[in-house]
Design goal:
13% strand; 521 residues
Length: 521
């Protein structure tokens, strides 16, 4: 049978055993280069097309799983390499542990694309009529979606770099996340990227679909009215980015000086016009408890009739209760009016399971383990629209960034990406924040220690930002919210509806006629 499509020709060879796995690893690594900040989209087409072809030519479900696993390992090794940087930051200096742990993470994450490929091959082996030029792609898109969703939930989840992020270079193409979330956007992205394997006509249809999606997204961004109760010009916010190197941040002798620098940046000209000053995650390099003298210093950064919103390590004054990674609301009297304790801690980075029972081990990560917060929280303050805080890593979780009850009017993300230097990690983290804003239809204020701090509108557009390793601040009016999006109303129910629709298409007994002379999937 002749192979007629150029992308298929790249991978259409008789690959077996380790050669197939090696090709899959390379293809996955290439696809990762389409993620932020590079956006080399043609490599995503090649990588996903290779994934489909290697799945199609796998002789057994087990070999399909192994090939998919190798693809995923290559993909996540390249996409998550930036984690290595944290192992080289003093005082938690574990250089020798970094490479094996990061490689091990890639192997674990690679299991999810492997499951997608293995499950799809097992289904085809059981019901051969599921295979075909189009049905094979639809089936694989469904199993891919299930696997990507599982990656975001199993063992607390790690939904970093979902496939839909390849469109972040063009904000209109991200707007579908408001309907089906980033996982659903990934489903459609998989079908688009894999389309060339089904033939050039299918590839042209996919390209046209991308164009239509872009036009629809642009139209949505220009015509959707603000949500009821929103104003065109919201309260003025100052986002402070102190740019403190992580190696210097927690040295005891530096704490007072760093706090003074934060206050000084906060009080720069225009201070009297502000409603909010925002500091990043754990901005004061000390634990803040009831009656802490540092609160009096922090109060100097509170604008007239306004608030300081700062990340901080929080104590309730009882050492036996531990310390929380928190967001504090501080007034001009140095009183903590409200707080939010981070719910979704980074496993092994800021939380060690059973750390109370394993106290001698908890020091392994440097400062030990934070306590988990009890629940998401929407904060309401006089004179401000209600907001939901999101601390660092929490911004990567779809459908899990707002508190219960009345809908928030904006999101606040405080983070410290200084651990990851000038790698791709902070850029990818920013994209996650942008997609959460789109999904929820809410603007986001983002304050980070070393960048990238930003004001993001409810469509995921960055209205103002402060780049990597820059010291300074951003003054900007809080953007308005959109009306509640379908995803903010129904969450992954919209994703389920999309998967069910694809399932109905897959199970339909009639399928398009394949012209003679064309390669079949």
């Amino acid at each position: 049978m002749a192979v007629r499509h150029p992308i298929v020709m790249i991978v259409a060879m008789d690959l077996r055993g380790w050669r197939a796995s090696g090709a899959a690893f390379v293809a996955g690594a290439l696809a990762a280069l389409a993620m932020p900040p590079l956006y080399w989209l043609p490599l995503a087409v090649v990588g996903v097309a290779a994934f489909v072809w290697l799945w199609r030519t796998a002789p057994t479900p087990r070999s399909a799983l192994v090939r998919g696993w190798a693809w995923g390992t290559g993909h996540f090794a390249v996409g998550s390499y930036w984690i290595l940087e944290a192992f080289f930051v003093p005082p938690a200096d574990f250089k020798l542990l970094g490479p094996p742990l990061v490689a091990g993470l890639a192997v674990v994450l690679g299991f999810f694309p492997g499951v997608a490929a293995g499950a799809a091959r097992a289904l085809v082996e059981r019901w051969p009529w599921l295979d075909g030029r189009y049905r094979g792609l639809v089936l694989l898109a469904i199993t891919w979606t299930v696997a990507e969703w599982l990656r975001g939930h199993v063992f607390t989840g790690f939904p970093w770099n979902p496939l839909g992020h390849v469109w972040a270079f063009a904000t209109p193409l991200l707007q579908g996340a408001a309907l089906v979330g980033v996982y659903g956007l990934g489903t459609l992205t998989f079908l688009v990227l894999a389309a060339p394997v089904a033939g050039w006509r299918t590839a042209m249809v996919a390209l046209a679909a991308v164009g239509v999606a872009g036009l629809a997204g642009e139209q949505t961004m220009t015509t959707t009215a603000p949500a009821e109760g929103s104003t065109a010009k919201g309260p003025m916010v100052r986002i402070v980015q102190p740019n403190i190197a992580q190696a210097e941040k927690w040295r005891p002798e530096n704490g007072a000086r760093q706090l003074a620098e934060l206050v000084e940046l906060s009080r720069r000209p225009g201070f009297d016009k502000l409603a909010i000053v925002v500091w990043p995650e754990t901005a004061p390099a000390m634990v803040i408890g009831p009656g802490s003298p540092d609160l009096r210093v922090m109060a100097q950064a509170v604008p007239p009739d306004g608030y300081l919103l700062t990340g901080a390590a929080r104590s309730d004054g009882r050492p036996e209760d531990g310390v929380w990674n928190s967001l504090l609301v501080v007034d001009a009297n140095g009183t903590v009016l409200d707080h939010y304790d981070k719910v979704h801690l980074v496993p092994l980075g800021e939380y060690i399971p059973f750390h109370r029972q394993l106290a001698p081990v908890s020091g392994f990560i440097g400062r030990g383990s934070y306590e988990e917060g009890h629940s998401r929280h929407t904060i309401e303050l006089p004179g401000l629209p209600a907001f939901s805080p999101v601390i660092c890593f929490e911004a990567i979780f779809p459908g899990a960034v707002t508190g219960p009850g009345e809908r928030a009017r904006w999101l606040l993300n405080v983070s410290n990406d200084a651990w990851f230097g000038l790698t791709s990690g902070p850029y990818q983290h920013l994209v996650s924040a942008r997609v959460r804003a789109i999904e929820e239809g809410l603007p986001m204020v983002r304050s980070t220690n070393t960048g990238i701090s930003a004001v993001i509108d409810a469509y995921g557009r960055v209205l103002a930002s402060l780049g990597m390793q820059q010291k300074g601040f951003i003054d900007h009016a809080l953007p308005p919210a959109r009306p509640a999006t379908p995803y903010s109303r129904w969450g992954d129910g919209t994703l389920l509806a999309l998967v069910v629709l694809l399932g109905v298409m897959l199970l339909a007994r009639t399928s398009p006629r394949i012209p003679d002379g064309h390669n079949s999937l």
